[in-house]
Design brief:
mainly alpha; 4 helices
Length: about 70
Amino acid sequence: MKNITFSADEHLIEAARARAQTERTTLNDQFRAWLREYAQHTERLTDYDRLMQDLRGKMRVGRKLSRDEMNER
């Protein structure tokens, strides 16, 4: 594993360490998790697009939805 040095505001570092401690983890562990998510972002988007393509035409509602029904939240 490689070491990396970053510069950040001292108060932010201390606040992040405090939060990590309340979550029973370390700032290093949190950074590693963030870096993993950041690096895999494109891969997850590709997986999502592939899934949507695979599902296209396979899901049926049973009837045509109205415009209002499709936009309900």
